[in-house]
């Protein structure tokens, strides 16, 4: 029997379409619990969703209504909201769509849908699969009234973000069509790669997010992280050999499309600043040690800035996100990869850098920051991933601590040097039973009392929240 609703929180985000489907796991014998205290951490956890396969959004996507009362989630049948005070779930959009984000001004949820192939188009030869239409339609639905409007119709590409005042959309396309999923000639001699890349079908049981596997020449299996990097490398090489990719904006009032940047790079992770309507962040996708990943640019194409420059071989940086006030870019930094771990910050106004150190087990697939900028959260990782953590399967809360100047005496060049510190961690949720082929993707609720995440720790995907204050 479901317990009476608790007053969970009264505040104000995350899409991620499940990119790939590994397997349909058998249904658990009973529904997961709805409310419990983690015996290993003493923190209260609640299950926010009732339908298996319901998931919170990607870590940097805004999924909260402006009044903080509702959380947007994806379900096997569309888009729904969760009332954060009562846990009531309400369907908003039905159909297979890609959530972009919740508008910070209007509270409308923006999403895209690729148009069906025109039946009047010439038929494909019987030995080939008809290509899908490249046309993308973008819609916005009001969370309260359910009123839906078509925002734009794009001949190609996709949209990733809406700016702070909801005047512009941000997207990327590839000249000549959609980007290839991998190199046409496969992996190098001696390596096999069976990385799955199938879209998640509506109604499927998305227990996992993706599967990558590959073998070394002697037949020894690669780790998940190595196999994933191999797949990313092949796709990057294919993109670099093809037509350029283009970052563009769309004016929501006029429909005018403007080109911002054109490169023969795999462009992704596009984000508008949460406060500055004309500040864009994007990345060069691929294996992190062979690309300069994190970049900034203005909507008029000026201000192209590389956020991080490596100083050693195999140094990597990525999974970048803005602070809530838009003043800082934060990102996962490893010096070198898999050995020394930092959460690094770059101040957009001053270019000042701050690095907070973490242990191997505290490294997380994704980090996030609280609305007031005082706390961080992480979703941990397993032994197969880049940090090879022995005991890293936890939802973490981090409190930053700056390393003080000795005796209060500053270095004469301290203003131009990296300001260092450490993250003091607290474990909130034991994810020992979670399979990290699904990434939990943590986010703070706007009242900063809870952290929302998705998990398959009970067999199927649900969306959960853990209370930051200890229950006991």
What does this structure look like?
The chain has 472 residues and is mainly beta. It has one domain: Methylamine Dehydrogenase, Chain H, CATH 2.130.10. It has one helix and 30 strands. The protein has an eight-stranded mixed β-sheet with strand order 20-21-22-23-27-26-25-24, with no helix packed on it. Strands 1-2-30-29-28 form a five-stranded antiparallel β-sheet, with no helix packed on it. Strands 6-7-8-9 form a four-stranded antiparallel β-sheet, with no helix packed on it. A hairpin with a 5-residue loop joins strand 28 and strand 29. The radius of gyration is 22 Å and the shape is globular.
Helix and strand arrangement:
Layout (H helix, E strand, L loop, with lengths): L34 E3 L5 E5 L22 E6 L2 E6 L5 E6 L3 E5 L5 E7 L21 E7 L5 E7 L3 E5 L5 E7 L17 E2 L20 E2 L8 H17 L4 E7 L5 E7 L3 E6 L6 E6 L9 E5 L6 E2 L9 E7 L5 E7 L6 E7 L5 E6 L8 E3 L6 E3 L15 E9 L16 E12 L12 E2 L5 E6 L6 E9 L2
Parallel strand pairs: 23-27
Antiparallel strand pairs: 1-2, 2-30, 3-4, 4-5, 6-7, 7-8, 8-9, 10-11, 11-14, 12-13, 14-15, 16-17, 17-18, 18-19, 20-21, 21-22, 22-23, 24-25, 25-26, 26-27, 28-29, 29-30
